[in-house]
């Protein structure tokens, strides 16, 4: 087990290095490079720019600059926002809560609903329910999230007036019920794609398990069917879902960005888009690196957790 | 045994695949819808009396089926159907061209990684893993923010964020095919490595590549709609299914039809390509049916 964890950790660190190199390359693709903000300013002459370039060490060889930049990233110095000079990491962390709240709620909905649909679909394979669920999942995966958000706003906010059309809370309110009221629509919209994916993975995982020998053995022993399903089948079918949770993470983050935009949700995704609008490259790069790191850690944790609950993985 | 029974027993692989595909009704429906969308976008504008960028301030916000405008007009009085068709040209072309580029990159990277293995393979595949760490929309928007928006950049950027899945598929295929007799025989004949890779191995992996390509079109159309909706893809006055939804949110209360038509078009196109890919997978890979 320790060897597996160390191996997996080494892999993750190597990936982090490549990921950061890609991030660094993108940063230098920016028009004017890391100095773009000053380059655009009429206050600075070319001489000033050259001097600042030297002062900031931007004339050094790229590999040295990369190591320097990577070192500062590791120490938590991710640069400062062009907009208000605030440290990038603190800008991100002040928006992170809203995003995590949205993602967590959507995930809970998706896991409960998706697993239920998947299990039922597997148990009644090729039934009407299963066919509808399969077709429904495919459509859910094809609907643009932002458009589904618009339709939701139109139906439930404009026509029915049941739900607010956006924001995290009513100004001046902010009670738990008010927060919950604002959370419903964006969380459901974000949960749609997730539910479809969980349903599909759960269905195939469950199908694989219920055809195993030990399920037949349990039946032969005369074990009641509900006990076979819950104790033997479901428990084993749920294990690979840990990996799915890790795989889902990038989609979930991307979906959150879109849902936040449509519902003017003050999270990291919206911050990302606003920062792009302001050409606030340090924040844009910061969020890009932050989300990639989150994905990396997510899949690392998922793999290690999976190895903990399923010893077969560690050997292979 | 008569010739007739023989012919039913020994179906050519292509025929067998076609039979399996025909059974997949949703995939067939998808293919038909794609055909309709493509023909409608390609030929439709010639049949309509309206230009997609013609602004008619006197006829703003005409609802659908009111007079000459079948799908109504938008906030500048432009015909929504004409914009939908021209937008379809842009969105579908971007979807297909981005797929072709992503396929080319993915197949080359996957073939090299799978054929050479070792350090080359490890480096290439770790690169694939690393790019996959970035959530697609974040990466796409960050890149789009750094470049001049337009159809060509949008297409290239979408391809740049979509080639990894293909590379993984091809790498796995090539890695296992490389050990087979026909590949070893080609090597014994003195074929060059490049020839073995792209004349022997890749063609034998064509089934999963075709499936991946179809699903990739769906993904690319979806991504185009995301970036254009967010304002970093196709720029007005040119229409795309994504940017037609740009302003739709503002007028959602008064003119909901502006949001419905492009959204339905995107969903139809993406769903169709997804079903088509699903059907092709069932048709081209008979092993999947046994499971």
Q: What general form of chain A does the structure show?
A: flat
Average pLDDT of chain A: 85
Number of helical regions of chain B: 13
Query: How many extended strands of chain A?
Result: 0
Shape, principal axes of CA atoms of chain B: elongated
Largest sheet of chain A: none
Helix content of chain A: over 70%
Radius of gyration of CA atoms of chain B, rounded to a whole number: 23 Å
The largest chain-to-chain contact, stated as pair and per-chain residue counts, equals: A-B, 45 and 43 residues
Q: Give the oligomeric state.
A: heterodimer
Largest sheet of chain B: none
Low-confidence sequence ranges of chain A: none
Give a concise summary.
Chain A is an all-alpha fold and 316 residues long. Chain A has helices at 2-29, 36-39, 46-55, 62-74, 88-123, 128-142, 145-159, 176-210, 213-220, 225-238, 241-262, 268-277, 281-309, 311-315. Helix content of chain B is 70%, strand content 0%.
Key phrases:
heterodimer, A: 316 residues, mainly alpha, 14 helices, 0% strand, B: 291 residues, disordered N terminus
Written account of the structure:
By secondary structure, chain A is an all-alpha fold. Helices cover 77% and strands 0% of the residues of chain A. In chain A, helix 1 runs antiparallel to helix 13 (281-309). The radius of gyration of chain A is 24 Å and the shape is flat. Chain B is mostly helical and 291 residues long. Chain B contains 13 helices and no strands. In chain B, helix 3 (25-47) crosses helix 12 (257-284), helix 4 (80-116) packs across helix 10 and helix 11 runs antiparallel to helix 12. The longest helix of chain B has 37 residues, at 80-116. Residues 1-8 of chain B have low confidence and may be disordered. The chains are: A mainly alpha (316), B mainly alpha (291). The interface between A and B is large, with 45 and 43 residues.
């Amino acid at each position: 087990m320790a060897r597996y964890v160390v191996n997996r950790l080494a892999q993750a660190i190597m990936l982090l290095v490549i990921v950061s190199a890609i991030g660094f390359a993108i940063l230098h693709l920016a028009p004017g490079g890391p100095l773009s903000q000053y380059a655009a300013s009429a206050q600075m002459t070319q001489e000033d720019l050259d001097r600042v370039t030297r002062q900031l060490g931007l004339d050094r060889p790229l590999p040295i600059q990369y190591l320097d930049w990577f070192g500062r990233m590791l120490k938590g110095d991710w640069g400062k926002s062009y907009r208000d000079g605030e440290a990038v990491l603190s800008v991100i962390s002040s928006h992170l809560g809203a995003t995590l709240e949205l993602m967590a709620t959507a995930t809970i909905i998706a896991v409960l609903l998706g697993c239920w649909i998947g299990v039922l679909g597997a148990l009644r394979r090729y039934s009407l329910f299963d066919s509808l669920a399969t077709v429904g999942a495919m459509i859910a995966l094809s609907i643009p999230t932002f458009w589904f958000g618009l339709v939701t706003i139109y139906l439930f906010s404009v026509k029915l007036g049941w739900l607010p059309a956006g924001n995290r809370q009513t100004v001046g309110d902010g009670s738990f019920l008010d927060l919950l009221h604002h959370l419903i629509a964006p969380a459901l919209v974000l949960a749609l794609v997730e539910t479809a994916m969980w349903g599909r993975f759960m269905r195939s995982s469950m199908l694989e398990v219920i055809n195993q020998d030990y399920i037949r053995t349990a039946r032969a022993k005369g074990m009641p069917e509900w006990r076979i399903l819950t104790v033997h089948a479901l428990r084993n079918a749920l294990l690979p879902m840990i990996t799915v949770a890790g795989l889902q993470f990038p989609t979930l983050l991307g979906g959150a960005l879109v849902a936040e935009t449509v519902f003017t949700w003050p999270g990291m995704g919206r911050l990302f888009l606003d920062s792009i609008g302001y050409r606030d490259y340090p924040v844009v790069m910061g969020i890009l690196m932050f989300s990639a790191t989150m994905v990396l850690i997510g899949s690392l944790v998922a793999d290690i957790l999976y190895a903990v609950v399923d010893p077969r993985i560690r050997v292979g | 045994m008569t010739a007739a029974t023989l012919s039913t027993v020994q179906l050519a692989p292509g025929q067998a695949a076609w039979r399996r595909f025909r059974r997949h009704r949703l995939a067939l429906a998808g293919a038909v819808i794609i055909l309709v969308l493509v023909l409608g976008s390609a030929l439709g504008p010639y049949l309509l009396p309206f230009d997609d960028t013609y602004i008619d301030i006197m006829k703003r916000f005409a609802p659908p089926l009111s007079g000459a405008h079948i799908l109504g007009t938008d906030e500048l009085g432009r015909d929504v159907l004409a914009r939908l068709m021209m937008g379809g040209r842009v969105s579908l072309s971007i979807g297909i061209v981005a797929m072709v580029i992503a396929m080319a990159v993915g197949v080359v990277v996957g073939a090299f990684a799978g054929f050479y293995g070792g350090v080359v393979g490890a480096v290439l595949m770790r690169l694939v893993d690393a790019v996959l760490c970035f959530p697609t929309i974040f990466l796409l928007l960050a890149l789009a923010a750094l470049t001049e928006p337009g159809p060509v950049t949008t297409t290239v950027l979408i391809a740049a964020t979509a080639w990894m899945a293909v590379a993984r598929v091809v790498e796995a295929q090539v890695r296992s095919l490389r050990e087979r007799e026909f590949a070893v025989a080609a090597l014994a004949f003195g074929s060059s490595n490049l020839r073995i890779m792209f004349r022997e191995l890749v063609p034998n992996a064509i089934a999963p590549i075709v499936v991946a390509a179809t699903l990739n079109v769906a993904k690319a159309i979806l991504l185009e709609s995301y970036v254009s909706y967010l304002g970093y893809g196709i720029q007005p006055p040119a229409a795309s299914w994504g940017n037609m939804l740009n302003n739709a949110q503002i007028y959602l209360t008064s003119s909901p039809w502006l949001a419905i038509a492009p959204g339905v078009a995107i969903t139809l196109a993406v769903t169709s390509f997804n079903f088509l890919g699903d059907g092709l997978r069932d048709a081209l890979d008979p092993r999947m049916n046994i499971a």
